[in-house]
Amino acid sequence: MYCRACVNIAAVPGYRFLRTRLEALDFPELTRRVEGWLADPAGPARHVACLNTYCVTLAADDPALQAVYDRADVAGPDGMPFVFWMRWRLPGVPCERLYGPDVILHLAAEGVPRGWRFYLYGGAPGIAPAMAEALERRFPGLQVAGWHTPPFRPPTPAEDAAVMAEIGRLRPHVILVGLGTPKQDFWIADHRHRLRGCVLVNVGAAFDFFAGRVRQAPRFVQRSGFEWLWRLLSRDFFRLLHRYTVVNLRFLWRFARDGFGSRVDAD
Q1: Quick count: other Cβ atoms within 10 Å of Cβ 155?
Q2: Rounded to 10 degrees, what is the CA torsion of 240, 242, 244, 250?
Q3: H or E stretch including 145?
Q4: Strands 174-178 and 199-202
Q5: With the CA atoms of 160, 164, 167 and 168 taken in that order, what torsion angle do they form, in degrees rounded to the nearest 10?
Q6: Mind listing the pLDDT tens digit for each residue in 72-125?
Q7: Which among 123, 75, 63 is positioned nearest to 103, based on CA atoms?
């Protein structure tokens, strides 16, 4: 049996929202784990999952997606409502939002002095190179080893093999995957066993933010818990309308029905 508890002993408690256990951790703890994993170049590829209410709600109806999150080495809260709740229900336990763009900025800052190489997988045509340029400009010395923009259709076996061969040749330490939920999650689950000595992070819309296609919410909006409203009123209104209305309401109803989740202590 393959599970998160088997591959990574959790160092902190967490909270179960619907069926998904989220860890209450901060960025120093994330750095400690990533640095430890990357110390072994032959070690298994690791998965850092940044999960919001959309991810958790989809997983509650999809056993395959739930299994992906259960197997992640870190399942962290990408949403201030989760953070607010865990800070309240887990007093004294440090908990920060593992927001995709912030995770990228943090890993980039930590990666420059450590010589970590990054690889970008995802985005629409032209987005990944623009994101790479923005990150390298912001973090002088950052090593973006490469990027790949997959087609909107499923890649052929030959195309997939070529990308995996390139990643294997470049040997990045951190692979940022921005394909949208749940596509990015299944891609990580399907490919992590073919990689060694790296960390894969699902970062969702971060590609568009860094490339400048979508304007990111101001920091005070991000911290308020209402970033969903900012994004709903952005250029992606029709794409996000169902997610931020129907799906969020479904999450709230199920969370209340299930007794408002439960604390899960460190393994």
Answers
A1: 14
A2: -150
A3: strand 143-148
A4: parallel
A5: -160
A6: 999 999 989 899 999 999 999 999 999 999 999 999 999 999 999 999 999 999
A7: 75
